[in-house]
Write a structure and sequence with these properties.
The protein is α+β, with helices and mostly antiparallel strands and 562 residues long. 43% of the residues lie in helices and 13% in strands. The longest helix has 21 residues.
């Protein structure tokens, strides 16, 4: 029946030099009549492998001439041979549900076919049979098993998906189509690759666009690619493996510093109820405020010319005294920010300050360092010997832990470890921190634990605070420049081990041995350069006897001259 329709469509009545294979057809009919699905698929897979091995000879009879019989044989193109039409239209290959189906009504299961036809389509070839064919895919093509859908099929499926408007349910289906489209664009290397890419770009830019973003359908120029760091305040294209290449090809831009600044201003406008008063911020707004700032900090570290004070110098910031775009605004670690926040505006970035250190200059935020802060205890308390020994043991264990697990963090200490190990613990009834601001003004506030580096003293109002990472841990990490949060948490574990009596193992790392050798070499060189010139051995040139010139005599005759 299918062969007759094909000939009618070609206005043909006969085929020339056609072939039939009764034996092959008898095998196919016997396979189709098999009731046991496992046996049927095993026999069908065996026949597919036989056809694949013999395809070099069988392909010569794959296509035949279709003709019409008016006065002579009039060519009407080519069609499949009679034997192949019988194989294509007999239900002897199983679909993915295990039911026999004609090969011409089946398709291979790939990323593209799943994206277009759905994962539950009964028209997929059974996976056992697809694996049996392996690399001999020309057999399935000849049998009419549909392979990869084309670009036009994928674009048409996207258009149908957009017109359906089923809300969030269409996002997984759209992402499957995007994955299939990315694979085809990446593997298309023909002469018409540029034309095909231009057609896809043109289709994505028509009507409302074919990019299903977090905020609905958009054109490529009306959304961003990458992680959706701006939440509901900007549209982002779906992100998946290989998505960057697809969206870059389609002209979807990356979010830049200007976009991050715009989003921060929008979030600020919606997040505060009135100016200079701290308004509650929901979780999404808190996340969106942090991630654009982290993006700006990363850009400021890598490309500082893109994040300047003219761009972000008046950016609204969330401080301890409310949202403000005025300056000055100050920054410090969490303990000091809590202590001084009621008197001066302390920046609350929503994460550890070290993540945003590259952004402090462009934001015109003043960081309060150890040189600006002094601590004043209520009384001159004596050294707590037991607490001091415990803290020193914990410091040794902290060094061992960092040397084993975070060597770069251990090396970020801004002083020798020996100096840190000299700390003394004093317990006082109350403790205040005082800071001198750049303008000469001062501010002060209560704290419970502090590190007075000049006096090599760790002050605290309660011995129990020494074990907490948010108290003694925070005070100690002020001497580190990297990953302070990890050091504070490691301090709690080290203090616990010190209380249990574990002794630290002093590790001598290769980096330390090299540094010691280099220091010894530098010291020797400096010592030699410092010696007076007179004490060094003087070099004297050797005396030479003057050479006497011979008196001119009669010139000798050259042996070749006469």
């Amino acid at each position: 029946m299918e062969r007759r329709k094909d000939l009618q469509n070609r206005s043909a009545t006969y085929t020339l030099e056609d072939h039939d294979s009764p034996d092959l057809m008898a095998v196919v009919c016997d396979i189709a009549a098999e009731k046991d699905g496992t046996v049927r698929r095993r026999r069908a897979a065996a026949l597919l492998r036989v056809l694949g091995r013999s395809w070099g000879a069988l392909s010569e009879h794959h296509r035949v001439r279709a003709v019409s019989d008016y006065q002579t044989w009039n060519s009407c193109g080519e069609t499949d041979g009679f034997w192949l039409w019988q194989l294509k239209t007999t239900a002897w290959l199983d679909n993915q549900d295990g039911e026999p189906a004609a090969p011409c009504g089946l398709r291979e299961r790939t990323t593209s076919t799943v994206a277009v036809y759905g994962a539950d389509s009964a028209g997929f070839l059974h996976p056992d049979l697809q694996r049996a064919v392996g690399r001999q895919g020309e057999v399935l093509v000849a049998l009419g098993v549909t392979g990869e859908p084309g670009m036009a099929d994928l674009l048409e499926a996207l258009c149908r998906l957009r017109d359906r408007e089923a809300g969030a349910a269409v996002h997984p289906a759209a992402q499957l189509l995007y994955r299939a489209l990315a694979e085809q664009l990446a593997t298309h290397r023909g002469k018409d690759a540029a034309r095909v890419t231009a057609d896809v770009v043109r289709a994505f830019g028509q009507d409302r666009g074919l990019v299903l973003t977090t905020l609905g359908w958009r054109r490529p120029g009306a959304c961003f690619r990458g992680l959706p760091v701006f939440g509901q305040w900007a549209a982002f294209a779906p992100s998946f493996k290989g998505s960057d290449v697809l969206w870059e090809t389609l002209g979807v831009p990356e979010a830049g510093a200007e976009d991050a600044v715009r989003v921060v201003r929008d979030v600020t406008r919606e997040g505060r109820e009135r100016r200079d008063v701290l308004a509650p911020v929901d979780a999404e707004a808190e996340t969106v405020m942090r991630e654009p700032l982290q993006m700006l900090a990363g850009t400021a570290g890598e490309r500082p010319e893109r994040v300047t004070a003219s761009l972000v110098g008046r950016l609204p910031l969330r401080t301890s005294q409310g949202w403000t775009s005025k300056r000055p605004v100050y920054a410090a670690d969490a303990t000091l920010a809590e202590a001084l926040g009621s008197q001066i505006p302390m920046w609350l970035p929503g994460a550890e300050l070290e993540q945003f250190r590259a952004l402090l200059g462009p934001l015109r935020v003043t960081e309060l360092g150890a040189a600006d802060i002094t601590f004043r205890p209520a009384e001159d308390a004596p050294v707590d010997k037991e607490a001091t020994d415990l803290v020193r043991d914990a410091l040794d264990l902290l060094l061992e832990d960092l040397q084993r697990n975070a060597l770069a963090v251990a090396g970020s200490l801004d002083c020798p470890w020996e100096n840190l190990a000299e700390l003394e613990v004093r317990i006082t009834s109350s403790l205040e921190c005082m800071v001198t601001l750049p303008g000469g003004e001062s501010a002060q506030g209560p704290v419970r634990t502090a590190l007075d580096w000049d006096a090599r003293t760790l002050w605290t109002v309660d011995r129990e605070l020494l074990r907490r990472p948010s108290e003694a841990g925070r005070a100690i990490v002020t001497r580190f420049t990297e990953d302070r949060r990890q050091v504070a948490n490691s301090w709690a574990a080290a203090y616990d081990e010190a209380e249990r009596g574990r002794e630290a193992v002093r590790l001598e790392l290769a980096e330390e041995r090299v540094a010691q050798s280099q220091a010894a070499t530098d010291a020797e060189r400096a010592q030699r350069l410092a010696q007076p010139l007179a004490s060094l051995p003087q070099w004297r040139p050797k005396s030479r006897r003057p050479r006497t010139r011979k008196a001119p005599g009669r010139p000798r005759r050259h042996p070749c001259r006469r």
